Amino acid sequence: MDAKSRRGFLSAAARGTAGALVARAYAPENPPAEGRGAAPSGFRGTLCLFSKHLPDLRATELGRAVAALGFGGVDLTVRPGGHVTPERAALELPPFLAAVREQGLEVPMITTGLLSAADSTARPMLETAGRHRVPFFKPGYYRYAFVDVRSELESASADLRGLAALAARCGVQLGYHNHAGYIGGPVWDIARVIEALDPRWVGYYFDVRHAVVEGGDGGWRAALNLVAPRLKMVAVKDFFWEKGPQGWRQRNCPLGEGMVDWKEFFAALARGGFHGPVSLHLEYDIPGGAGLKQENTLAAAARDLAFLKAGLAGAYADA
After folding, report:
1. Is residue 274 within 8 Å of residue 254, measured between CB atoms?
2. Which of 121, 207, 215, 265 makes an SS bond possible with 235, Cβ 3.0 to 4.6 Å?
């Protein structure tokens, strides 16, 4: 599907499917049906929508909309500009979790910007998450300055070790996200640090899209194989390389329209026995203005969720 066709699909879906979903989501007489957010047969993990993509919805509305689409959970942003303010996490997170859970959803993970245990928001945030049964969290991103990558990696590693120790004391597991362009993007650089930490509390939040950016052939497969024994969470998104006036760049796209080998990826997850949270991201351009952006986002999420469920069902049935 090219960009023009994709825009047409999203617009049409927003006027039809998404409009119906929104209406159902906000109808108080229609709470989530039992099993609506069930994972595909054979897969026991929770399929989540990354809350970043519905920034204008508060807790109850977010839960209703996500449940109506067929997800089982929410990957909740607890970071600057997110659904929960880091400085107020101790106050804001418990009622937010309760409101989402009242819609029949889980919140198995939170996405944070935490980089150090010295961050004044770290302890209250992680203590609150642990106390309210959020099992996993994603920290923020450490950057290379590309001046002396060895010392830059060691500095980031010291901060990560301290953050991991705090998370363990709070009862929350850390999943390190392999984001291309940052420390840990190739996985190999951060692996020696993570492998030395307690696997009960520290592992990986594997992002296949970014792994393919860093290693488009065997690289992403090797990275997934490396992290598999300590895989905590998975992020799903897709992309392709596009050449424009300023050279090659990454273009995000719906699942199945890019360079990720989804059949092999799902099969690898099934072979490894992964049953943790899977967070769906919609990083590609979604058209819409004057109120249509949210409906188009819901339509895109419904489409990608259907792709995700079908892929997991096939892979786990064959495992």
Report:
1. no
2. 207
